[in-house]
Amino acid sequence: MSCRRSTREANTIELAAVSKLFDGGGEVGALMRDLDWSRTSLGSPDHWPQSLRTVVQIALTSRYAMWIGWGPDLAFLYNDTYAHMTLGAKHPWALGRPAREVWSEIWPQIAPRIDKVLRTGEATFDEGLMLFLQRNGYPEETYHTFSYSPLPDDAGDVAGNFCVVTEETERVIGERRLASLRILAAGLATATTLTDVFAVVELSVADEPRDLPFALVYVIDDDGRRARLVARAGIPENHPAASPAIDLDAPGPIWPIASVLTNPGIVTLDLDPGASPPFPQGPWDRPPVRALIVPIAPQGPSRGSAVFIAGMNPYRPLDETYRSFVGLFVGQIGAGMASARRYEEERERAEALAAIDRAKTAFFSNVSHEFRTPLTLMLGPTEDALASGGTLEREALETVYRNELRLLKLVNSLLEFSRIEAGRTQATYEPADLAALTADLASTFRSAIERGGLTLDVDCPPLPEAAFVDRQMWEKIVLNLLSNAFKFTLDGGIRVALRAVDGQAVLTVADTGVGIAAAELPRVFERFHRIEGSRARTHEGSGIGLALVQDLVGLHGGTITVASRSSRSRARRQRAGGDAGGHRHAGLHSRSGTLAR
Questions:
Q1: Does domain 430-578 have CATH number 3.40.47.10?
Q2: Cβ(215)–Cβ(310) under 8 Å?
Q3: Where do the CATH 3.30.450.40 domains begin and end in the chain?
Q4: Topology of domain 173-183+201-319, per CATH?
Q5: Which residues pair with 219 in a beta bridge?
Q6: In sequence order, which ranges of 283-433 are alpha helices (DSSP H)?
Q7: Using alpha carbons only, how large is the chain's radius of gyration in Å?
Q8: What pLDDT, in 10s, does the model give residues 201-252?
Q9: Helix, strand, coil % (nearest 5) of the chain?
Q10: pTM above the 0.70 mark?
């Protein structure tokens, strides 16, 4: 009788222990309590060995993620933390199933480790191991630090595997993305041109392509109608998705850049998995299934827009963290572009200041000579007259008068030039018979030209209609060109012609002078520039005559050019022009006009 009571008491204690086995196990504990264990290889919990019950109770009440594989098929048991952090959609399906089924996608990686534990009783340890888990319906790049330990049964033999795991996916991928941003920032810190910036982008993506398997940067032209490829990484040059230029007005482009510019913001684009050729896959074994198109926001003064296009890691969800990383990456590109533009502007400004300084030096050198020569020529007769105590003879007076006129002309030219440069010159445009006006101006040079042994040919037939010009400015244009031609023509002649060409008035001043070296042609209209060593009637001049002509022609809406032929009789032709018809609108209404020498 006492023996039966002892057995009954033992069974009662056993049942009480089983009923408390899943206490404190949270959601998973409740599921275990309600699960029909007879359908699993473990059988009813009241037949479980005490060692298994003990480790299950430890796992259920722990805050660390843990799973247990017990028996020949390693029936799968786990706790709440593991269910929510690691299993994903496989919970609660995985409870009680063989471990091989639960983690079939990574079984080739973890099976050797488990086998070692079961065979040798020695624990394993892995830190930050990459595993492609399919826990949410797609293979996902994950990282885990875990240990596999042997579980003994009541007899002391190894009967299962015990795993304590910490998922470190966010840490590993976060550090990787931070390193990408750091590499990009370090490269952009030394980039001084836009070309440098785009090269750094290419190197940064190529250096770490796991999160950006391929990337493209397109810059939008000023007219907003075309996008030019300026950076390419991870994608072949001849790939159709890396077109060197995209017409934004064309229908159906691969990348909808126009819509991104119209409605700024990150655009997600699903990529065609059957595309041929396929999109580049980078270091992965499959191509991206999504791409992001992100406008590069200008920072500070901007001279155009740009977009960043990148394929996404096919093994990571496109969540807010991923989008933030791409946003930071693109933000650094925008900052780099703005910095490079500022650097280029500062360099251009420094070069302009240096050019101005050189021009001032040349000007002061020239003008000092120009002032000194007439003053010296006037001082001689004046000193002679003072020494003799008499009056100046006519020849001396003529010398003084001629040089006074020379100084006056120089001063007037400088004042006129300075007014134009300062934007204080106001033109008064009136309809004029340009042919008659030009012929009359040219005739004033005839006597001087003929005394110099040259011929003057004036060919100015009437134009179809009046031209709107500022008469005083036109006079300066014609007389400066004739004066320049006469100065450098030692034999032969000068020809002045005016024609109407395509509704424009074209003035040509040609001569048979000494010509201009090809290297000097681009600098003919440069302020304060003088061609050294050129044969001329005089060496007077400050180097602003033709620069003044160019500005006056520009005020009339015209253009001026120069040409010269290298021969003994090289012709120097000079033309200035404007619209002979037209109407009065901010000066001479014209599209073009040229001056050639």
A1: no
A2: yes
A3: 173-183+201-319
A4: Beta-Lactamase (3.30.450)
A5: 228, 306
A6: 320-388, 394-421
A7: 45
A8: 999 999 999 999 999 999 998 888 899 999 999 999 999 999 999 998 887 7
A9: 45, 20, 35
A10: no
